[in-house]
Structure prediction request, 53 residues.
Amino acid sequence: MRGVPPAEQSRVPVKVIAGITLAALGIPEVPGCAKIAGMPLVTPPGITPRASW
Prediction:
């Protein structure tokens, strides 16, 4: 794991909880934005969504 910076052992549980919290907040945002835009959750390959503004 060369890309992971060193961390104190006592801080690892705090960092794991912070990562789970960020994922729990960020992941549901994508389907919500897709629904508001009227896009399907899964875009077929080769189709690039474009803004209609």
Notes: The two ends are 43 Å apart (CA to CA). The first helix runs from residue 12 to 26. The helical segments are 12-26, 29-37. The chain has a mean pLDDT of 77.
